[in-house]
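Most newcomers find our protein records easier to grasp once they have seen one. There is nothing in a record beyond a sequence line and a structure line. Getting from the letters to the tokens is the skill we practise here. An example says more than a description, so a record of this kind follows:
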Amino acid sequence: MLTGKVNPSGKLTETFPQRIEDTPSYLSYPGEEGHVRYAEGLFVGYRYYDRKKMKPLFPFGYGLSYTTFEYSNLRVNRTETTEKDTVEVTVTIRNTGNVAGKEIVQLYVRDVESRLVRPEKELKAFAKVALEPGEAKDVTLTLQPRDFAYYDSTYREWVIESGEFELLIGKSSADIVLRTTIQMNAHEPFRPLTITSYIKQIAKYPEALAVVKETLKGTFFADFLDSPFAGEMPFFKLIGFGMPREAVEGLLERINTVLSNR
């Protein structure tokens, strides 16, 4: 391997930080009094460095080789999909160096807009391909419906939302070389809003938003609803600003009635 007779083909399965202080668990590990708080939540590994826009020493999926590889001709078997379909993603890999080698193709998925917080991108598939000098091969990776889902702890189920998803082909988590977008048209069952739901969850339903505006007419919140910050406010904040809890719960009941009858 050191002399070049054998070409290394492995890639890192973790992220190497510049400093130990850069790790997502630095402030909460090892904990105290026998308790460790997993404060990083979803943002472990490359997900944390993506969100912080922090450059690590070596990113997840990184690897060296005695040859070079060219990625091209990204295509998908469908540009629109549903929660029942699989998506096949194909890319052409060419060995552009002078020695044989193997490359690990990585496929990440990015939810362009989500109701809940999601990582910037998530690794969903990968494959290793062996290539002689100058040789090119197509690599096909398959995405299952679950690969587009996130877990909603409020409803205790996996959720696939309609909307745009980016499919990202990378040599590592920090080296995305090709990308395309597909449209997810998922059937989303009605999920009642709760007191912890956010205002933005009804923004796309004019009839429900009208109920909120009518209820809050004449109050401080009537004008606030048109601000860019209103969507990030959970309903229980209305209680904190003086609206009786019974009134907030009544508002939610009316909203849910409107949404369930859509």
